[in-house]
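Please check this.
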Amino acid sequence: MIILEESLKLPGHFRVEEELREQLSGRSGHQRCLEGRGELLLVVHDVPKPRVPERKGIYFWKNREGRWHQDSGPGLGALSDLLDRYTAAIGEHEELVDEADTAAEIFTILRHSGPLARSTRNLVQAIEQALLMDPDDREIRAFRDRAREIERAADLLNNDARVTLQFWQAERSEQQARSAARLGRIAYRLNLLAGFFLPLVALGGLFGMNIERWSPLFWLVFFIGMIIGGALLWAVGRRTGKFADFDDEEERS
């Protein structure tokens, strides 16, 4: 019978039966609970680090007498410490979400919150597997309930970071839309102003500006240009109805 390399990574005082060893490979693999002939082997992962695909495996062995063993000796204290580290990591990033001022900071938090959410979810599943194999283990049941709370906190952290980033994107889009609308109003009014004086400039060019200033003919050309420009301005404003629209939009802004 071949004992694979993974058995060498188990703590030395683990007297794991052959049936459990055969279920292992050269890596820790995903978080799970393995069952042998009266023994259990709980495989969980330490708190993940961003941009690090490898996960550090932590092992807990339950012998046939129903006693749990960890790397440092008997008991499940290392599992409690692991949950404390998850809680601390989530709490640290929750504070960063509240203090973040830029999208880059939120994106950095998402790089942490995503692996945290997945890892805590798989951690809960592994502990639940152990509880299904031994429903009377109250200590594991307590750890399962605590792990569920941590999983919910990790999901909330990941969702809060995503919602914050989406809110900033929507807010920036609204600001850009308002700026574009403001520039559009300015350009529209400048065009109206240019259209208002266009007849006057056209008439002046038609007469070649050979009119004596302040003469009756000068005032005639001036008033005719103003009347035509005003008529064009009124006709365009009435046809498009943009005067009222722009005024209402300014009031709402």
User: Anything to note?
Assistant: Residues 1-8 have pLDDT under 50 and may be disordered. Residues 117 and 154 are 5 Å apart (CA to CA). Residues 181-252 form one domain.
